[in-house]
Model the fold of this input.
Amino acid sequence: MKIAMVGSGYVGLVSGACFADFGHDVVCIDKDQSKIDRLHQGIMPIYEPGLDALVESNVKAGRLSFTTSLAEGIKGADAIFIAVGTPSRRGDGHADLTFVYEVAREVGESLANDAVVVTKSTVPVGTGDEVERIIRETGTAHRFSVVSNPEFLREGAAIGDFKRPDRIVIGAEDEFGREVMREVYRPLFLNESPILFTSRRTSELIKYAANAFLATKITFINEMADLCEKVGANVQDVSRGIGMDNRIGSKFLHAGPGYGGSCFPKDTLALLKTAEDYDSPTRIVEAVVKVNDSRKRAMGRKVVDALGGAEAARGKKAALLGLTFKPNTDDMRDSPAIAVAQTLMDAGVAVAAYDPEGMEQARPLLPQVTMCDSAYEAIEGADVVVIVTEWDAFRALDLKRVKDLANAPVMVDLRNVYKPEDMRAAGFTYVSVGRA
Done:
């Protein structure tokens, strides 16, 4: 089949490369000429493990190509995926669907054959209806069907998630759409990947409901971590104890500085706004958003307390290890590190930082932070070392070297990477999350 992927960002590029690896003929389309030029040179616009090699092999095989022309890119395509950004709209938190609707209009005006138009972008309930209306208004003479096919990709593990999915959700209103989507995903039938066919609106809501539920799990265990600190319990044991219950499951029960990234923050907000529009309040999700926002700065205050409190902290230096919202990505969107760093700087603490992949993206967001070339450069002269992102590179630091470089052997571990007893034995004042 021929597939057109409109949007060559995180979702579009990963999905396009994986579809090409399945044997489909894929054209990735993006209006950003510099991005397309870099892709032609084999330079990835994002960091995702294995993506550069996957793109390179499929380009060489002639199954993957790039263009800035939507009209050319969708010509002859059986399925046209819309994979453009839907950021939170300034001022009200609604998902900004400007790019989705622009693509829909251009697709309708350029459609040269029968095709299925697929919303891969995360969109509120009813967006597919509007996309269908926009395409129909262009007066196209060709048959088309609008389908919802949300993505469930974890940054840092996206290729594996795409090729070995927990499920494939397809929201279609007619047999034409279902038939084409079966063929698109036919290579995964061999892996017996479950495919769930639903109505279009149901599919759109599944994506938001899934992200809101995962955000709730994260926020719940973070509140339990705070309680553990008060009563002298261990949140990691609490997580194991409840996670072994099959009804709960162990994933997303790791206490830390709160969730961030490109999905959970904007999707929980968008779900809240949709619920408000339909007069069906989602109080639990509302609480999750509020608690998560406050938690990030609370983690900054935890570091200030480790420095001896507000008065003692002023004029001291903190070394932040990790800036991206999670490891194995360069994504800085809504990263807890931003709020932690800002809280420290507000308290008069100088901040130095290092991240294996996120430095370029972090610089414009944290212009007052000193960006370093290594973890040990950031640690030199620091009064406290803070682990913000659990990169593998920070799991086995040379603790003797850390002590020699730092002004004081104080570590605040916001990801519980180390064991308290090991840190005490190494001579550190050690603060973690939800543990004595």
About this structure: The chain has a mean pLDDT of 96. The domain at 2-198 is CATH 3.40.50.720 (Rossmann fold).
